[in-house]
Amino acid sequence: MADLCKRVHSMLGQNNNLKNNDIVKHFVQEGFKRRTIYGIMKRYEIGLP
User: Fold this and answer.
1) Cβ atoms of residues 2 and 38 within 8 Å
2) Model pLDDT, residue 7
3) What confidence score (pLDDT) does residue 1 get?
4) CA 9 to chain CA centroid, nearest Å
5) Is 41 within 8 Å of 12 (Cβ atoms)?
6) Helix or strand or coil: residue 34?
7) How far apart are CA 47 and CA 45, in angstroms?
8) In sequence order, which residues have a C-beta less than 8 Å from that of residue 44 and are 6 or more positions away?
């Protein structure tokens, strides 16, 4: 799970032109749950690891 968080954070930090929905679609295609990705993104926005 920590690896997934790092990957999501990396995409959020590097790809300013991507919308959140695009990032979620990417990870859902890899087999992760949509809710999990949105949860990680929310924690990133408020500054939690």
Assistant:
1) no
2) 96
3) 83
4) 6
5) yes
6) helix
7) 6
8) 8, 9, 12
Region of 14 (left: φ > 0; alpha: ψ -120 to 50; beta: rest) is: alpha
Is there a contact between 15 and 23 (Cβ–Cβ < 8 Å)? Answer: yes
- The per-residue pLDDT for range 1-49, each reduced to its tens digit, is 899 999 999 999 998 889 999 999 999 999 999 999 999 999 999 998 8
CA distances from 11 to 3, 7, 15, 25, 36 (A): 13, 6, 6, 12, 15
Tell me how far apart the terminal alpha carbons of the chain are, to the nearest angstrom: 12
Alpha helix (H) residue ranges in 1-49? 2-14, 20-29, 34-46
pLDDT of residue 16: 80
